[in-house]
Design the sequence.
C-alpha cells in the first residue's frame, strides 16, 4: 500500500501535487452555500450546535482560535472512532485534514483527494481551504486572530514538529500558541464512543524469539550505553509498547494496538494503559501482581501518564529519552528543564524493532506464502468471473478478504483493500464504495492493493492486471513499472545505504520516457503490526538498510481518468556475495504472486532483468507450489504454474543469433548433402 | 576534484572513514614526545612562546579554553596565509583541523589524511586527537574545563552550525561558549601576513550578460517577493559579492575572490571591503563617487561590517535575510531580536548564481574546449616521455599547469594539481611534494586531477591512465568507474530532482562487485569562481538540478597502497526530449578529453553505455578537433583522433551475430558456387 498517511502526509502530498486527480468519481451532490437558501446534500452534517458549544469552551479558556487535528495522542496512522474529533466537529470523515474554529469562522484544510467529499459532508458553517501546509493554516490564523491573541491546541494531538512549525510562523507575529491539555471537542462530544471493551492478548510462544524480559534488558542496555546518560525511556507510539511486551490489542482499525505509554527506567517499568483490560493471566505474565525488582511491570492508569511523568521528572538527576517523531507535545512539554530531556528522531525500540530476528524473519516469510495463496485465488477467480460481467470492485475486494480469512492465523485485513478498475485506479488511495464501485470488464485495467494481518506477520501486495487486450501504452507503462521494481530488487549495495538514495531506480525506466509517479516507493512492514512500519523504507527520513529489515517496493504509474498501475512486493534485506567486497546487501522478494504476463513487453527488459524475473518465478513455483499442494489447491497450482513459465527474450539479439545459427546449421547440412 | 574541504568536511570525512589510507608515503620522521629527551624532527615548529602569549590573552578575557578553527571569516574553502591561524599556533599546515588551547594543554584535531603530517610539524606542546567530530572536541572540553567555565571562540570563524553544535554539547553540562570578537591569535601573531596589495578588477563585458545593476535589481525582486518580508540581504561568502558586482580579486589562493561583505536593501547598497584597493575607474563603475539613489554602491571599510550592521538592525521595522550556510556567527549574533532575522540555507545570490545564463553557459563550455587542449597535451607528452624514465608526479603537474597557462584567458590553476602515481593515487587529496613525488613508470597507474581558472570559466577534470599493461582488476575497476560516470551522465530525470537521489548510479557498477569510493560524486563549478561551487552537486545539502547548472561527475575507486582511479567530467544540465513527458532533464558532458582505451573492458558495458561513449567521442572530435585545428596543433589532433575511435562491443552477442552472418554469407556463397 502506498504510504501517504500519518506523519509523512506533508511530504507525501508535496510529491503528489500535480499528479493526483480530484475524486471525480463522486456524484455531484456537493453543498452550495452561495445559493439562497444554501443547498445542503443529505450527506452533510449539521454542526451548528456543536460549534456553538465549542465556542463557549473556547471563551472559558480565553483563546481566540482552536486547532483540531485529525490524529490521536500517539500520532497513529489509523485512529479509533473515539479519536475522530475532526470528523465529529466538521462532518468530514476523510483521513487527512486540520480544522480551526474561531468565534466567527470555522475552516477545514484537506488535500485534493478529499475536496469533493468535504463539500458533500460539511454544512455551510465550514469553509474549505485547499493548501494544507502549516504555513497556510498559520497565515489564516494571523489574518483571523488579533495580535496578542491566543491560539489553543490539544498538546496530545500535536507532534513536536507540528508545534514547532506553528510556533515559527505565529510567534514572530505576536500571536501565541497555547497548550490546552483538556481536549475541548471532548467537552462537547456527548456521545463520544467508549474505549473498546476487548482485553489485551499476549502473542503465543511459537511466534516469539525474545521474551519481553529479554527485550527490556536489551533496551536497557541501549539506555545504559548512551553517551548522554539518560535514566529513562518514554515510549509513546502504540507499536512500541506492543512490541516491548509482546502484547496486542484491538483499539485501532487494521492495527492490533492498544492505548498505552511506557516509561522504562533501569529498575522500574511503568506501563500506562486501561488497567481494567488486563486479565489476571496477563498480570502474572507481566509480573505485575506483586511487583518488586527491575523485571516487573507496574500497571498505571492510561490517563495518569502526564502526572506520573511529572513526578519522575521532578526527581534530581533524571534524564528522559524520547523519540521526537512519535512523542506528543503534551509529554514533551513537561520534560523540563532542558537538561532532563534527551532526544533522538526515533526511539531505540523503533530502530531495534526494525531489524527482525531469525524467528521473526521466518514467520514473516511464512505469512507471505499463505498470503500469496489468497491473492492467487482472487486472480484466478477474476480471470473466469470478469468476462461473465457480474463482478465489481467491491465484490473483488470482498473475495480477497474472504480468501485471506481462510488462511491459518488470519486476523483480518491490514488496511482497507484498494480494488480499483479503469480511472478509479488512477486516484491515490482510492477504496471502492457503493457509489464509486465500477463493474470489472475485459476492457479496463484492474489494480488490487491489499494485505492481511496474521499472527505471524503483516502483508501488503499490489498486482495490476488486464483481462482483455491492453493498449501499447499500458503495456509499456506496466513493463517500465516492473523494470523499476526489478531494478531496486536486484541491486547490490553496501550495508547502511539509505533507501532514499536508491529509490530512483524504481523510477528510472519511467523517467526515460517522461513518466513518473507521485508517491513513495516503499515502507517497512512488521510482524502482526502496522502495514506502514516506519522508520524502514525509501523516504528521506528512513533509517539505513540492515540485514533482517523488511520493506515494500512499489513503483507505479497513473494516467488521470484512464488507468493506474502499481506493482508492490515485500522484500527482506539479506547479505549479497560480491567478487571483491564484504558487507554488501541485496533484497529478496517474499511476496510470491506472478505478474500479468500479458502486460510484460520482454523486449524492453535487459537480460539481467529477465534473469531476475525467471529466478523469482522459480522461487514462486517452489515455495508457493509446496503450500498449494499442502492446502490441496490443485486448480490454483495449475494456474500458478501456467503464470510462472520462464520468459524468453523476444526480438532480442539472442534470438536473432539463434536463428542465424539455425541458418548456418541448415546451410552446412545442405552443403553436406550436396558435396 | 573531489570535494572534501570547507564546509562539507565533516560530512565528507564520515564518508571517507575506513577507506582513506594514512599518508604512508611520508618518511618516518615524526616527533617522539615519550622519548627522553623528546625527539623533534627538523620540520617541527617551536610553539612554546606563542602559546605562552596566547594564554596571557586568555587570562585577560577570563576564558578557560580557546577554540582555533582552520577557516576564515567567510567560511572559505581555501584561506589566505593571513588567515592560517591554526597553522601559526600549532605548526601544522594541513587544510583541515581544529585547535584548542587551555592554560595547561594544547590539542589539535585532524583527520587521518593528516596524522603523519601533524606528527612531523607539531612540537610536544601539542597533543593530537583523531576523532574530528564536534562531539569529540566538546567531550575534551568538558573534561578539561571546570563547570561554570567559559570557552572562548572568535565568532567570525564559526558558522551558525558550528556554534550550534558546540552549544548543544556544552550548555547542558554548565560550560558556556563565549564569543570573543577580537581574535586572540592575531594579538600574538606579530608577523601576520598583510592584506594582499592587488587592486580589484571588473570582468570585461564580453564575459557578462547581466550588469551588476541588473543583478542587484533581480536580487531585490527576490527580497521584495519573499513572504517573510525581509528589508535587507546580507552577503558573507566571498563569491556572493564577487558575483553580484562582476568583480574579481586575488586574496585567496586559487579563488579569484577579495575580502568583502555586502548589505543590500531596497534603496541602498553597502559594500564592505578594503576601500583603498578600489581604483577611481572602479568607483565610477560602481557609481560610488557621488552616491545617490538605489543603484549606487556605498563603499565601507571591511572592518566596520559589524558596526554598520548593528546600526542597520537598530532601526525599527527592519529584517535582515541571511543564508545560514555561509554567514559567520559574528554577524548572525548581532541580528536581534529574532523578528529582525530571516534565514534560508543559501542566500538568493547563491541559488541564482547556480543557474548559468546563456552567455555564462556558452563561455563556460568554451573554456572547457581550451582546457581540453592542455590536458590532451599532457597525456600525449606523458605517453612519449614516461617510458624514457625521467618524469615524475611533480614534472607532470608542472607540465599541465604550463600547458593551461598558454591557453587564452588563462588565470592559473583552479586548485593544486593532484598528480599521483601508483599508491599515491590511493590517498585522498594527495598532491605531490619533493619528498613524496614518485617517478612515473609504465608499471603503475597514474591519476591527474587538475583544473584551470580562465576569465570565462573554471575547469576541473580527472583522467586515469596506464602506460604499460594493467592488471585484470585495474581494468575491471576502471571500467566500472567509467560505467558509473556514464550512468549518471546519460540518465533522464524530472526537473527538480536532487543529485543526492541519483548519485548511487555512479557507484552501482562498483557495488555489484563489492567496490566503492569514499568521497562525494560531484560539485558545481563556476564562471571564473571557486572550483567547488556549492550548492550545486550530488551532496545531501545540494539544491535540485535545473537547466543551466554545471556540476562535476567524479566516481572513483582506490586500492590502498596500490593504485587509485577517478574519472571526472564537468557536465551541464539541459532539457531532455522524452516520449510522453515534459520538463525532463539530462546531462551533457562539456569536458572533452578521451579516456584511456587500454583500461576499458567493453564487454562489461551495456549497449546503451557503449552508444553514449561513442556519441561522446564524436563530440570530442567535433569540438576539440576544431579547436586543435585553430591552434595549429596537428600532432595533438592526430593523437585525439586515435584515442576517440569508435568502440565495437567485444565478445558480445552482436559480434557473435555478425560473425554468424559472415558464416552464413560464406555458406550461401559456397552453395551458390556449387549449385
Sequence:
Amino acid at each position: 500500500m502506498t504510504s501517504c498517511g500519518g506523519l509523512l502526509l506533508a511530504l507525501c502530498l508535496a510529491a503528489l501535487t500535480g499528479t493526483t486527480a480530484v475524486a471525480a468519481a463522486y456524484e455531484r451532490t456537493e453543498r452550495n452555500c452561495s445559493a439562497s437558501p444554501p443547498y445542503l446534500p443529505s450527506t452533510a452534517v449539521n454542526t451548528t450546535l456543536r460549534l456553538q458549544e465549542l465556542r463557549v469552551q473556547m471563551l472559558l479558556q480565553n483563546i481566540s482560535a482552536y486547532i483540531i487535528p485529525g490524529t490521536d495522542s500517539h500520532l497513529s496512522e489509523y485512529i479509533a472512532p473515539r479519536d475522530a474529533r475532526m470528523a465529529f466537529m466538521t462532518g468530514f470523515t476523510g483521513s487527512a485534514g486540520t480544522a480551526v474554529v474561531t468565534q466567527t469562522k470555522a475552516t477545514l484544510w484537506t488535500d485534493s483527494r478529499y475536496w469533493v467529499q468535504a463539500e458533500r459532508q460539511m454544512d455551510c458553517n465550514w469553509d474549505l481551504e485547499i493548501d494544507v501546509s502549516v504555513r497556510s493554516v498559520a497565515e489564516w490564523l494571523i489574518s483571523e486572530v488579533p495580535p496578542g491573541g491566543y491560539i489553543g491546541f490539544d498538546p496530545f494531538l500535536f507532534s513536536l514538529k507540528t508545534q514547532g512549525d506553528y510556533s515559527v510562523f505565529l510567534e514572530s507575529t505576536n500571536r501565541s500558541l497555547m497548550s490546552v491539555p483538556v481536549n475541548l471537542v471532548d467537552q462537547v462530544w456527548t456521545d463520544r464512543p467508549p474505549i473498546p471493551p476487548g482485553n489485551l492478548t499476549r502473542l503465543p510462544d511459537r511466534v516469539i524469539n525474545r521474551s519481553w524480559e529479554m527485550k527490556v534488558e536489551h533496551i536497557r542496555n541501549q539506555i545504559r550505553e548512551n553517551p548522554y546518560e539518560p535514566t529513562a525511556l518514554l515510549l509513546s507510539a502504540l507499536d512500541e509498547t506492543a512490541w516491548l511486551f509482546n502484547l496486542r490489542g484491538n483499539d485501532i482499525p487494521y492495527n492490533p494496538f492498544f492505548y498505552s505509554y511506557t516509561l522504562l527506567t533501569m529498575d522500574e517499568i511503568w506501563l500506562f494503559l486501561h488497567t481494567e483490560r488486563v486479565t489476571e493471566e496477563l498480570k502474572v505474565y507481566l509480573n505485575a501482581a506483586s511487583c518488586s525488582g527491575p523485571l516487573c511491570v507496574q500497571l498505571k492508569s492510561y490517563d495518569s501518564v502526564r502526572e506520573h511523568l511529572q513526578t519522575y521528572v521532578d526527581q534530581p538527576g533524571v534524564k528522559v529519552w524520547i523519540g521526537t517523531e512519535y512523542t506528543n507535545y503534551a509529554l514533551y512539554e513537561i520534560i523540563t528543564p532542558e537538561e532532563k530531556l534527551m532526544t533522538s528522531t526515533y526511539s531505540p525500540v523503533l530502530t531495534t524493532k526494525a531489524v527482525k530476528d531469525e524467528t521473526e524473519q521466518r514467520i514473516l516469510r511464512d505469512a507471505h506464502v499463505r498470503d500469496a495463496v489468497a491473492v492467487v485465488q482472487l486472480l484466478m477467480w477474476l480471470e473466469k468471473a470478469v468476462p461473465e460481467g457480474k463482478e465489481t470492485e467491491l465484490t473483488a475486494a470482498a473475495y480477497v478478504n474472504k480468501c485471506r480469512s481462510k488462511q491459518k492465523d488470519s486476523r483480518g485485513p491490514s488496511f482497507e483493500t484498494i480494488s480499483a478498475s479503469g480511472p478509479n485506479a488512477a486516484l491515490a488511495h482510492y477504496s471502492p464504495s457503493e457509489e464509486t464501485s465500477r463493474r470489472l470488464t475485459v476492457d479496463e485495467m484492474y489494480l488490487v492493493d491489499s494485505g492481511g494481518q496474521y499472527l505471524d506477520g503483516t502483508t501488503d501486495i499490489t498486482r495490476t492486471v488486464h483481462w482483455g487486450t491492453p493498449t501499447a501504452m499500458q503495456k509499456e507503462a506496466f513493463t517500465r513499472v516492473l523494470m523499476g521494481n526489478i531494478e531496486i530488487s536486484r541491486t547490490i549495495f553496501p550495508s547502511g545505504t539509505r533507501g532514499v538514495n536508491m529509490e530512483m531506480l524504481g523510477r528510472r525506466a519511467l523517467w526515460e520516457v517522461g513518466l513518473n509517479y507521485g508517491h513513495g516507493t516503499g515502507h517497512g512492514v512488521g510482524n502482526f503490526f502496522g502495514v506502514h512500519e516506519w522508520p524502514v523504507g525509501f523516504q528521506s527520513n528512513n533509517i539505513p538498510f540492515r540485514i533482517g529489515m523488511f520493506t515494500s517496493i512499489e513503483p507505479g504509474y497513473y494516467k488521470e481518468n484512464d488507468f493506474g498501475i502499481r506493482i508492490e512486493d515485500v522484500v527482506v534485506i539479506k547479505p549479497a556475495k560480491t567478487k571483491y567486497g564484504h558487507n554488501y546487501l541485496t533484497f529478496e522478494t517474499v511476496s510470491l504472486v506472478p505478474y500479468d504476463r500479458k502486460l510484460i513487453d520482454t523486449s524492453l527488459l535487459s537480460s539481467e532483468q529477465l534473469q531476475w524475473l525467471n529466478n523469482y518465478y522459480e522461487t514462486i513455483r517452489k515455495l508457493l507450489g509446496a503450500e498449494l499442494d499442502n492446502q490441496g489447491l490443485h486448480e490454483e497450482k495449475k494456474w500458478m504454474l501456467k503464470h510462472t513459465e520462464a520468459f524468453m527474450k523476444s526480438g532480442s539479439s539472442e534470438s536473432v543469433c539463434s536463428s542465424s545459427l539455425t541458418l548456418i546449421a541448415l546451410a552446412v547440412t545442405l552443403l553436406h548433402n550436396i558435396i
